[in-house]
């Protein structure tokens, strides 16, 4: 089986599983019904938790879907890595007050998968989509991927490239936030704010054209 065919078969398997999930496909409602709380609950879910408990896709989120796909890919012998990407507007945003009185910048992101082609070049795709579609951006830390959410272009920075084993250990928001801000390993804090004015301009311009074409 060719690599693209294997990936699509794994996407089919994963989404068929999510289609049979139990409970509301809404995280807040699901957590209320199951009497669980806290920002870390859904980050703490392992791939096995999501599969065995038949947790819906929106409850698992992009982090959960990446964990599940990564598990299935590992079992199928598909060599891959997991990318953490952070929303640039959040990286550039103001810090907010926490309950303990300290300030913290809240960052949202989107976790996706990448595989190597025959030339050793990384190609990324979003496992949350049912059909395999490779992202055109060059895949390396610091580069930008423009995701389309709700009819808008939302630029994200690739902050870390992780092995499946490393990503499986991301089980708290803090661990994910650290990857958003500092990347992986012992690297110093990366300057993801570089060129933010240019990125902001292009984000607005692309959003304008999308709205005009809708």
Entry keywords:
about 210 residues, alpha+beta, five-stranded antiparallel sheet, two-stranded antiparallel ribbon, 9 helices, 7 strands, about 45% helix, globular
What order do the strands of the largest sheet run in, or round the barrel if closed?
Answer: 5-4-1-7-6
Q: In which range does the helix fraction lie?
A: 40-55%
- Termini separation comes to 38 Å
Share of β-strand residues: 15-25%
Mean pLDDT: 88
Largest sheet: 5 strands, antiparallel
Describe, in short, the structure shown.
The protein is an alpha+beta fold. Helices cover 43% and strands 19% of the residues. A 5-stranded antiparallel β-sheet has the order 5-4-1-7-6.
Describe this structure in words.
- By secondary structure, the protein is α+β, with helices and mostly antiparallel strands.
- A five-stranded antiparallel sheet has the order 5-4-1-7-6. Strands 2-3 form a two-stranded antiparallel sheet.
- 43% of the residues lie in helices and 19% in strands.
């Amino acid at each position: 089986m060719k690599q693209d065919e294997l990936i699509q078969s794994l996407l089919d398997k994963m989404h068929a599983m999510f289609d049979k999930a139990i409970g509301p496909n809404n995280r807040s409602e699901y957590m209320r019904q199951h009497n669980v709380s806290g920002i870390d609950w859904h980050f703490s879910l392992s791939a096995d938790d999501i599969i065995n408990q038949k947790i819906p896709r929106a409850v698992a989120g992009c982090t959960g879907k990446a964990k599940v796909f990564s598990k299935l890919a590992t079992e199928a012998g598909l060599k891959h890595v997991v990318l953490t990407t952070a929303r640039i507007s959040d990286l550039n945003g103001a810090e907010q007050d926490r309950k303990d009185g300290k300030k913290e910048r809240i960052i949202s992101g989107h976790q996706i998968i990448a595989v190597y082609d025959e030339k050793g070049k990384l190609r990324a795709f979003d496992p949350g989509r049912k059909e395999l579609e490779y992202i055109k951006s060059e895949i390396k830390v610091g580069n930008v991927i423009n995701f389309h959410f709700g009819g808008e272009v939302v630029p994200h920075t690739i902050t870390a490239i992780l092995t499946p084993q490393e990503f499986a250990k991301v089980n708290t928001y803090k661990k994910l936030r650290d990857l958003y801000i500092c990347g992986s390993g012992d690297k110093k804090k990366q300057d993801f704010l570089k060129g933010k004015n240019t990125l902001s301009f292009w984000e607005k311009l692309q959003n304008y054209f999308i709205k005009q074409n809708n």
